[in-house]
Every structure is written in structure tokens, then in C-alpha cells.
Write a structure and sequence with these properties.
With 205 residues, the protein is of the alpha/beta class. Helices cover 34% and strands 19% of the residues. It is globular, with a radius of gyration of 16 Å. It comes from Paractinoplanes brasiliensis.
Amino acid sequence: MPDSRTLRALVLGCSLKSGQQESSSELLGRQILDALADHDVEGEVVRVVDHGIKFGVSTDEGGGDGWPGVREKVLAADILVIATPIWMGQPASVAKMVLERLDAELSETDDRGRPSMWDKVAVVGVVGNEDGAHHVIAEVLQALNDVGFTVPANGGAYWVGEALGKVDYKDAGPKPDTTGAAVKTLAVTAAHLAHALVANPYPAE
């Protein structure tokens, strides 16, 4: 029986834009967070580029690196949402930097000696004006699974505009029957799995 307590979600907005600018990928991340709220999940959105995160593959690159503070939020979360735009058919460089920093978790453990990201669920939201959403979702979820996150059924939601189009998701209007429906399904499976893992964590190896 899934646990009934309120869970925590963290959306890492991987837009190339600062927090002073509107972001379609962050909008989708916020919509995922709103959908999760219907399933006893609360949380926050962090715009990654605003935190002075250094390139590297350790938990702390020193010299004012902003990753340790963000990492604490990841550790406190039950569900991690990576919200990224597509650029040249790839996840944004910011998303790739986040994955590189999470690579450090391969050698980190919790207080039970288990991998640090076990019992955490990961999902992805993707927007772009070109094809490539399936590729981006696959690339990001595979990396997150490698470091210990659990991926739920239908763990990706996306919107892509017409090839060579100029319309962003934030300007495209509501998409309740497509992207909106996918977001609702993602929220159901992610919340259910996260509640189940809280109630019945993975055993120590």
C-alpha cells in the first residue's frame, strides 16, 4: 500500500535563460509540479543557470560552486523533474551539466550504505521547436537511472513545435489533450511509485 505522507518534488529548470526571462521548459516543469500536487506532492522549481554551478563530476568543485546547495535539495526530494529544452536534437547543455554533476553520486551512499539516489523517482519534461523529444527523454532518463533513480511508467512529457517553427510552448496555448494528458499520466505514475518507495524502500545490498 503506497505511503500517504506528503512527498517533495524538485524541478530543475535547465533553460539557457536566466530567471528574469520566461522559459517554456520551466513552464512545463511547473505544470508537472502542479499535476503532482494532486497526488500529495509539494515542491519547488530551481532555475539551474541562476546558481553558479561549475562544470565537473564531483559533489563540490569548490570556489563558490553552487552545486552543493542544489544537491541538498535533490537529496531532500522524493521526485526529481528535469525540465529541458531541445537544442540541435539534444538536451540543453545545462541539463547535461546537471547529469555530469550527478555522476558523482555513483560513489556516494546514504546512511544505510545504499546508493545515495535510491528510493528517488526521476521524470523528464521536454520542449522544443524540432523533433528529438524521444531521444532527449531517453538520454536523460538513462543517465538518471544509471545513478540510482527509479523511472516510472510514462516518465516523460513533451511538446515539440513544427520543424523550423518560431512558436514556443509558452506561446502555443493550452494542450490539454496531448501534452496536458501526458503530464497528468506522468504525475500519477511518479507519485504512486514515490509513495511506494517511501513505504517500502529498496533493501541494502
